[in-house]
Amino acid sequence: MPFVNIKVTGGAEAPTAEQKAELISGVTELLQRVLNKNPATTVVLIEELSTDNWGIGGESVTVRRRKQ
């Protein structure tokens, strides 16, 4: 049973329900096509993280976005 965990930032730039559905469908299809995995047992989890809890280059994403 494949388990895929996708992490994205939440808030204003969070993916829509439609985008999440497309990610789940697309990842499931990719695992079936490339690895011959059974779609019925493929699990895809999408986690939305606060930009305060995600850092790049020593700064939170919140701080980096404010600077842009």
From TrEMBL:
It comes from the Bacteria. Its EC number is 5.3.2.-. GO terms for molecular function: isomerase activity. The active site is at P2 (proton acceptor). Keywords: Isomerase. Transmembrane segments: none annotated. It is an enzyme of class 5 (isomerase). Residues 2-63 form the 4-oxalocrotonate tautomerase-like domain. Pfam families: Tautomerase. Gene3D superfamilies: Macrophage Migration Inhibitory Factor. Belongs to the 4-oxalocrotonate tautomerase family. This is Tautomerase.
